[in-house]
Here is the input.
Amino acid sequence: DADVTQTPRNRITKTGKRIMLECSQTKGHDRMYWYRQDPGLGLRLIYYSFDVKDINKGEISDGYSVSRQAQAKFSLSLESAIPNQTALYFCATSDPRTSGITNEQFFGPGTRLTVL
Amino acid sequence: RKEVEQDPGPFNVPEGATVAFNCTYSNSASQSFFWYRQDCRKEPKLLMSVYSSGNEDGRFTAQLNRASQYISLLIRDSKLSDSATYLCVVNIVVYGAGSYQLTFGKGTKLSVIP
Here is the structure.
C-alpha cells in the first residue's frame, strides 16, 4: 500500500470552477507539502504545513489555499481555476525526527490537473 | 539567477557509458544536498545524499564542492533502467525556526540507449 496517496489522479475542469486535491499519508509524518511541476520549470512549493495548526505559504501560493484537517490529511484548493494552473501536483511528507537535516521528502503519485 | 541550476539535457548515452551531471546553487547558506530521481510521469524519489567527502553507492558517485557551490553526480556503466530525470536538490536550514526547505533544480533528463 502506498504511504502517500493523492486523489484524484487526473482531473479535467473548466475555468472558474473550484477544485480540491486531497492528500493522505500513513507515514505518521508531521510535515506535509504541496508542489506543482511544470515542464521546464521544475518543482515549485505552493504551501507547507509542519503540524495540524501550522500553514505556511511557499514560493507560488497565489490562487491556492490549503487545509490541514488532521496529521494525515492535507488538501489543496483552487478557488477559481485558471488555465495556467494546469500542471502536475505533488503532495509530499517529511519527518525531521527520522530524517534529521536531510529533510528527505516522500512524494505521492501526483495529480494531473488540466484547466480548460 | 536561479537558486539551483542544472543542464536540462537530454543526455542520450549508450548502455555501459559513464555520464556526469552537474549542478550549481546560489545560496551559500545551503546546508545539505541531494540527488532525486524522477521517472516519467512518476513522483520524485531520493537517490542519494551528497557530502563534501563524496558519496558512492554502487555505480553512482555524488560529490560536493562548497567553495564553488557545485554538485555532481556520476553514473558508471549506465543501464537502461537508469533512464530518468535527475533532480539536484538543496536543503536550506533556518536554525531556530526549525525550518527546512528543499529547493529543486529543474532536472536533467537521461536516456540510456540499447
Observations:
- The mean pLDDT of chain B is 89.
- Residues 26 and 110 of chain B are 24 Å apart (CA to CA).
